[in-house]
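I hope you will forgive my troubling you with a question about protein structure. I am sending you one protein, given as its amino acid sequence and as whole-number tokens for its backbone shapes. Thank you for your consideration; the sequence and its tokens are set out here:
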Amino acid sequence: MFATLLVIEPLRIFSDMLPTTMYSTRKTLDLEDKDFTQYAVCPKCHTLYNIDAVRKKDIQKCAYKRWPNHQQAAKRSECGTQLLNGSAANPKRVYCVRPVSAYLIDYVKTKNFVRDCNLWRCRTIPDDYLADIYDGSLWKSRTNDYLKNDHSLYGMINVDWVQPFTHTTYSLGVIYAIILNLPRSMRFKEENVMILGVIPGPTEPSLHINTYLKPLVDDLEKLNRGMRLQDGSRYGNIYYFRVLGCSSDLPATRKLGGFISYHAKQGKINTHHITTLLKYYQTVIAWV
């Protein structure tokens, strides 16, 4: 009996040291992502600022002008919203973003990633079956040009808002994407979902999310031209990435695409943002 207790006690102590949740496991093993870029956000107009400049108090108020060339002087005034929490050097809101290229740098080093992204070429599905996105006319129309390259990738982007807290109203937005080239059994796994941006609360933007999309659009512009990534080969390979579509609910789709609200009775479409999306994203299709 005494010998048994000598064996059990160390095991009990060891078990108490083990993390009990996925979050604590990642913290214990130091697996948290440290390459998210942070921006200070204006709480009123959602303009992004360099967070270091805000923390050093080089920038304390939002300088955005909605109508800089308006005939009335009052309309040309700056936003003027305070970016810091009182005297503390902490921004009121912080936007975290990690572009697609940062994920691809890690993915291409993963064993069999390129092979898995090209398994769709070996599928045997009858012509009159629609089993996956590969069987649609949009995907098939790209197989003779963009998709001829084994390193050309298509993605789907999504935006949604969640309530992370139980006893208070706080709406937190998440921009994320998946790689459509991966088989359906793999593309939605946690390790293959790309968290591109976390939009701060407590309320979601009322009209659009253009300012939050700009860092991602800049990155997609580079990937559209091609980016050389080290994937284990001697000189690496040039990889391409384009967004083929978006999959969100109706309100989020309107904000993502720059459209007017779904319950609006009059107004104009944000044609500048739509042109940008069409230019760098190839095409935008919304399933709602």
